[in-house]
Design brief:
alpha+beta; 6-stranded antiparallel β-sheet; Thiol Ester Dehydrase, Chain A; 142 residues
């Protein structure tokens, strides 16, 4: 799937979340996804991006990368997400860069490094694993 196809699919499946994320690139076993910062939803005391917003970004970014590899599959599900918060990101957009380490028949694993907009040093890194269910066969006609 191209970034445009993934964006359209994402808007269709998750219309409430569409404005929060922008797919900048997807394919070649990776993706770049931007969290469009919203102070009403993503800020925490200290004027920094909230940890749960970074966790959601990591999850969405790997979801995008996996969709780009396996095609549209709404049944993929997160089975593990581990995150390290490295430094406080200032209130603002955050970019997630994904590298898929494994794209298997049952599991896909991605490594995510997140950067505050315009910063060279990462603010967080995560490892995300998705279960990729086997396609369901169509039932035989009765």
């Amino acid at each position: 799937m191209t970034p445009e196809e993934i964006s359209t699919y994402f808007r269709t499946m998750f219309p409430d979340a569409d404005s929060m994320y922008a797919v900048e690139s997807a394919g070649d076993r990776g993706a770049v996804v931007r969290l469009n910062f919203d102070a009403d939803h993503h800020v925490r005391p200290g004027n920094t991006v909230a940890g749960p917003a970074l966790m959601a970004l990591a999850d969405v970014a790997v979801w995008v990368a996996v969709q780009a590899e396996v095609g549209p599959n709404l049944d993929i599900a997160t089975v593990n997400l581990s995150i390290d918060f490295l430094r406080r990101p200032p209130a603002g957009d955050v970019r997630a860069v994904v590298r898929l380490l494994k794209v298997g028949r049952r599991l896909s694993v991605g490594d995510v490094v997140m950067y505050a907009d315009g910063a060279a040093d990462p603010v967080a890194r995560a490892s995300v694993t998705f279960a990729v269910p086997a396609p369901q066969a169509e039932p035989a006609p009765a």
